[in-house]
Amino acid sequence: MAGFRSLARQVRDPRCDLALRRYSLRKCLERFAPYGHRATWDHLCSRAGFGPEDRSPDPARLVAALDELEEARAVWLAYEVEFAERRKKEKHDGLRRPGSVDDWHRLTWGGFGVAWCDDPAVHPREPLAEVLRRLIAALEREPGSTCPVCGGERLAWKYDLDHEPSAGPVCTDCGILVPRPVLTPEALADARRARLLVSA
Predict the structure, then answer these.
(1) Total-model pTM
(2) Which superkingdom, per the lineage (predicted)?
(3) Domain ranges of the chain
(4) According to a count of CB atoms within 10 Å of the terminal CB, is the N or C end of the chain lower?
(5) Which of 133, 130, 134, 116 is nearest to 171 (CA)?
């Protein structure tokens, strides 16, 4: 099974058939897809200027989509290295019990679904790397009451998400499943009430 970097080389290789280059970009999303496979694909297509179903996109647009994905992956991999170093130090210092950020991080190792978007057509508009930087910054500070990506205040609790956890606070503005550790208990309670009001 090809890894992310070898797939990325195929996307960039002008000697490869265009269909293979497009396929390789899709396969990259099996290795790294911050919004989930379908939402990340929709995001990359809209930002690079080709349709999700376009079978013959301009090769330069495929490479532009790959560039954005690679930049975001570099941001996430750097965070994972820092995270692993921190946990190693904590264990050395006798802190064996992981915190809530650690619990969340275990579900997103490798970067899949870091900023899960259950609706593939609703996701942040900003570059993926910027979204991840905002999310990481929120994980490293005290919990707040708004979406860490767009600053939206309208969070609603949603059930039956196609992700783990299968329920949680979703930003109704940018569509991400907001990691619980970045929200205060009050913000989580408000999101649960918003869900109850929506279903009533």
Answers:
(1) 0.90
(2) Bacteria
(3) 4-195
(4) C
(5) 116
Please identify which residue in the block is written with the tokens 């013959």: 56
